[in-house]
Amino acid sequence: MSVLNWLKRHLVVIAGLLTLGYLLLPNVIVTVFSFNKPKGRFNYQWQQFSTDAWKDPCGVADMCGSLSISLQIALWATIGATVLGTMIAFALVRYRFRARSTVNSLIFLPMAMPEVVMAASLLTLFLNLGAQLGFWTILIAHIMFCLSFVVVAVKARVMSMDPRLEQAAQDLYAGPAQTFLRVTLPIAAPGIAAGALLSFALSFDDFIITNFNAGSTVTFPMFVWGSAQRGTPVQINVIGTAMFLVAVLLVLSSMIIGNRRNKQKA
Amino acid sequence: MAAVTEAPPLAPAPETKPPRKRGRLVPYWLLLPGILWLIVFFALPMIYQASTSVQTGSLEEGYKVTWHFATYWDALSEYWPQFLRSVAYAAAATVLCLLLGYPLAYLIAFRAGRWRNLIMVLVIAPFFTSFLIRTLAWKTILADSGPVVSTLHTLHVLDVTNWLGWTSGDRVLATPLAVVCGLTYNFLPFMILPLYTSLERIDGRLHEAAGDLYAKPWTTFRKVTFPLSMPGVVSGTLLTFIPAAGDYVNAELLGSTDTRMIGNVIQTQFLRILDYPTAAALSFILMAAILLMVTIYIRKSGTEDLV
Amino acid sequence: MTTEHSGDVRLSGISKTYGSFTAVHPLDLTVPQGSFFALLGASGCGKTTTLRMIAGLEEPSGGTVHLGEQEVTHLPPYKRPVNTVFQSYALFPHLDIFENVAFGLRRRGIKSVKKQVEEMLELVQLGEQARKKPHQLSGGQQQRVAVARALINTPKVLLLDEPLGALDLKLRRQMQLELKRIQTEVGITFIHVTHDQEEAMTMADTVAVMNAGRVEQLGSPTDLYENPDTTFVANFLGTSNLIEAEVDTKNGDDIVLKAGGGKLVLPEARCSAPTTTGGKVLVGVRPEKISLTHADEAGEIAEGRNRITGRIADSSFIGVSTQYVIDSPVCPEFEVYAQNIDRDARLVPGAEVVLHWNPAHTFGLDAAQDIDAGVAEVEEDAA
Question: Which run of H or of E encompasses A72?
Answer without folding.
Answer: helix A63-94
